[in-house]
Amino acid sequence: MFYRPEDGHGLPHNPFNAIVAPRPIGWISTRGADGSENLAPYSFFNAVAYTPPQVIFSSTGAKPDRDGTKDSVSNIRETGVFCCNVVSDALKGAMNESSGPWDRGTDEFRHTDLEKAPCETIDCSRVAAAPANLECRMTQIVQLEGQSNFLVIGTVTGIHIREDALVDGRFDVLSFNPVSRLGYRDFAKVTDLFSMPRPGE
User: Fold this and answer.
1) What value, to the nearest 5°, has the Cα angle with vertex 144 and ends 139 and 148?
2) Among 73, 148, 179, 189, which residue's Cβ finds the most Cβ atoms within 10 Å?
3) What single DSSP character describes residue 88?
4) Bridge partners of 137?
5) CA–CA dist 129, 49 (Å, integer)
6) Domain positions in the chain
7) How far, in whole angstroms, is CA 87 from its chain's centroid?
8) CA 15, CA 5: separation in Å to the nearest integer?
């Protein structure tokens, strides 16, 4: 089949994010200027540069009390910082629960019984049980085409790695099985690895 997005796909469910998959999940923790805490997963997330290390995530949709966006972007507008927490298989339930349409005053750490830990380079909490956390300073918030679509770009200023996720000096994803987002309501976890040398190596 072929379709133009503006004309619709004619399927029971939109296939777009099932095609662009799997996608890493950016479990974004933020703190508002008033000290309130927020934790929410975003599947439009990725690393985009090595030096300096940089990440992006996109927020789509809006809450009525957040000036055309969601809690995460609103908090980042106020404070300029956020933390990306890696989602392990053991944390998938808490991650999913934190995605709910909770009101502005809800602290998702408390709501999901997750332990907070302080960040070192920014004023924000992180998920203590996550296998890794990326502390970030926002460099840009870009309004994308379409209503309430925002791209957040951040430079990584600090990295936490849980000791048991380091095996022989490498960050070992099989030690915690990261969870990725597929289309519809589907997810996947990494359970198998294979390596391929680059041409010329």
Assistant:
1) 100
2) 73
3) B
4) 81, 155
5) 26
6) 14-188
7) 9
8) 10
Q: What is the DSSP letter of 105?
A: T
Can you give the C-alpha Rg of the chain in angstroms?
Answer: 17
CA atoms within 13 Å, Cβ hemisphere of 49: 9
Token readout for 95 is 């991650």
DSSP reduced 3-state for 39: strand
Tokens 């597929």 sit on residue: 182
The pLDDT tens digits of the residues spanning 50-96 come to 999 999 999 998 777 766 788 999 999 999 999 999 999 999 999 99
Q: What average pLDDT does this structure show over 123-130?
A: 98
3-state secondary structure of 7: helix
Residues ≥6 apart with Cβ < 8 Å to 90: 129, 176
User: How many CB atoms within 10 Å of residue 128?
Assistant: 15
Strand partners, 149: 60
pLDDT tens digit sequence for 103-116: 888 999 999 999 99
Length of the chain in terms of residues written:
201
107: its two tokens: 């602290």
Instruction: State the DSSP code for 142.
Output: E
The residue type of 195 is S
Asked if 119 and 99 touch (Cβ cutoff 8 Å), the reply is no
Query: Helix or strand or coil: residue 200?
Result: coil
| Domain at 14-188: CATH code | 2.30.110.10
